[in-house]
Amino acid sequence: MSEFKRQHPVVIITGVLRELRTFILPFLIFLILSVLGEDARIFEGRGVLIFALISIGFSMIAGVLKWFFFRYAVTGTVIEIRSGIFIRKQRHIKQERIQTISLEAGLWHRVFSLTALNIETAGNLGESEVQIQALPVIEAEEIRRRLTTGNTFETAEESAANVSGPQRIIDALTLLKAGLTSGSVSVVMLLIAAFFGQLIFFLPSRYFEQLLDVGRQLGIYAIFLAAALFVGVAWVLSVIRYVIRYAMFTVRLKGEDLIITRGLIVLKTLTLKRHRIQSVVIVQGLLRQPFGYATIEVKAAGGRTDDALTSTVLHPLIKMRDIEPFLRDFLPDVHWEHDVTALPSRARIRYIIRNLALPILALPFAFFEPRILWLLSVLPFLILLALAQHAHAGTAVGARGMTLQMRTVAKKWVLTGKSHIQALSTRQSLMQRWRRLSTVSIHVLAAPSSTVFTVRDVDLATTATLLQWLSREKRP
Questions:
Q1: Structural domains of the chain, count
Q2: Which end of the chain is more exposed for a tag (fewer CB within 10 A), N or C?
Q3: Whole-prediction pTM value?
Q4: Whole-Å CA distances, 15 to 21, 59, 192, 268, 302
Q5: What is the pLDDT of residues 118-173, one digit of tens each?
Q6: What is the CA radius of gyration of the chain?
Q7: Same domain, 321 and 397
């Protein structure tokens, strides 16, 4: 495929809708002026209609021109993009610069058997280097294959690898369990609170007066009922959000490529080169710990990741006992070191002080606001959390790599090879020097920049061991 092609004509419609969004704010201002302006007659009737027609006409012209002037071609292992109406742009991207290739198919894509092709390169932060918004699925797969292997069509060896390679498909029951224990209910609660926080400015005051009257009649039961309803609705919405995001989750290995597919409304297919994966992060949320489940995430070098520039989920819900067999199948170079050196007992008090510092500093203000004394009720929970954080934290090194353990609320294990560590840094505060402790951080290359993993209050002898281990010759 070397001739230049244009995207599917359906892009014209989406382009027109995208352009119309830019006219929403000016149109609202125009409409307000037509109602509240001193000389409203200027804006009445035909004025509003003319403004709307001009907006639609301009959007249609812009949508058609952008579609017409956007062309792409793949020659060998190079993709070339030409775009621009008044300022012409020409981009050539070679195979060796490509970090990840992903396919995204929304509902309107699937109606026309289309997909969007995103190509991320090194040094690109936040946005794709190339985005072809609509092309046939077969053609997109052909481009992906050409830019990853250099072959236009799948060879017999590739086909055999595709059939025999390891693959994991998340069933509906596992996905539901993952949604129920994801812990994302707090995010949904914040969104709901923000929505109602904006809504109150538009509702008549009589509704709030009626609501307060009902609350006075029901008393304390009204508060508990409202809180339970709020949490219940948020929990259901968080489960729905999670299921929509990770529905039909599949991860498979094809040659050196990890291919991850997920999504109900927007079907995403992400291709990651295994050698670009710098670290594996195992996350065990609070709700998943009693059941022995965890999530596997990966940090990849260069380009964008799957989840909002943070990490890519390799498995949304997996039993702890199944993690190492899973890694042996998909990432055999990643090793989980279990000979963990725990933190010394003298570091325990620092975790407790760190958790209690903010509530204790707020207590003097109780003289002015007695309700602050409610903070005393959370102190036992913060102490228990501090003890759990201290008990879980630790470090381990071996011939094949390093493992760090840390905890905020969720437990985390960070697995990385020696060759993927860009730097290992240590620092000491005055109190840490007195306690013969230090804070250890490792830096690994990941999108969009270096990622830092930190374990606090490590024994100085353990810190020296880590530095000595890293100073030895790195193994590939």
A1: 4
A2: C
A3: 0.77
A4: 10, 8, 31, 21, 29
A5: 887 765 554 556 788 888 888 888 888 888 765 554 554 555 545 557 899 999 99
A6: 28
A7: yes
